[in-house]
Amino acid sequence: MASLQIPFLSPLISWLYSIFFQKHLEICVLGLQSAGKTSLVNLLAIGQFSDEMVPTVGFNMRKVKSGNVAIKVWDIGGQPRFRSMWERYCRGVSAILFVVDSAIPLPYSEGAKTNQPTNPWLVATDELHSLMTRPQLAGIPLLVLATKNDVKGAVSAEEVIRVMRLETISNREVSCYSISSKRQVNIDVTLRWLCARSPSSAR
After folding, report:
1. Residue 10: inside a domain, yes or no?
2. Is 56 annotated as a binding residue?
3. Is residue 14 part of a domain?
4. Is 103 labelled as part of a ligand binding site?
5. What are 90-142's pLDDT values in tens digits?
6. Is residue 36 part of a domain?
7. Are strands 174-178 and 142-147 parallel, antiparallel or unpaired?
8. Is residue 77 annotated as involved in ligand binding?
9. Helix 187-195 crosses helix 37-46 at what angle (to 10 degrees)?
10. What's the mean pLDDT in 132-159?
11. N or C: less crowded end of the chain, CB within 10 Å?
């Protein structure tokens, strides 16, 4: 006896699966101005890189789809006047991405220039550690992304871990990758890291 073929059944099941078993993730992307945050978010959202990005003023929200994971991305401005907003947008997210510009030379390990408060690495380190001490953000996974590794002399992930003292952040999971939005280096690794931290959500 020939089996009855229902051509629309498989697409229907796939659609129902995507509705009821899709994973949902909300992340916050932070970092100093001109670190490469918006270029990264734009690449994740539409798969395109642009050298000419307008700095984020305040915040932007984008949605990213990776497999069966839907990601809501908050891109928060990195100028000093917006940093007080960081904690508010990080509350309750699935992960925090902190972006640093690895093309900027590291501060000297010795000498007066080490302690210059305006050095981007020192400022970024202070801002990150201050944020990580907020009780409302305890336990939220942190991913530090060193962007622009396509630039000659870019700082490695190992150096970022050392300079930013990431090993001292002990109240959460902490990871660090060296990436390039322009060359799309380790963008897939970043997405896998994010997707692995998204809880299943039935909607």
Report:
1. no
2. yes
3. no
4. no
5. 999 999 999 999 999 988 644 434 456 688 999 999 999 999 999 999 999 99
6. yes
7. parallel
8. no
9. 80
10. 96
11. N
Domain extent for 42: 24-195
Query: Is residue 79 part of an annotated ligand binding site?
Result: no
Q: Calculate the CA dihedral of residues 164, 93, 82, 121 and round it to 10 degrees.
A: 10
Is 95 known to sit in a ligand binding site? no
Q: What φ, ψ does residue 114 adopt, rounded to 5°?
A: -60, -35
Q: Total domain count for the chain? A: 1
The model carries a pTM of 0.83
At CB < 8 A and 24+ separation, what contacts does 152-157 make?
153/103, 153/105, 154/102, 154/103, 154/178, 155/102, 155/103, 155/104, 155/105, 155/106, 156/102
12 domain-assigned:
no
Q: What average pLDDT does the segment 76-81 reach?
A: 93
Is 67 marked as a binding-site residue? no
Confidence at 203, pLDDT banded by 50, 70, 90: very low
Residue 133 annotated as binding? no
Residue 22, marked binder: no
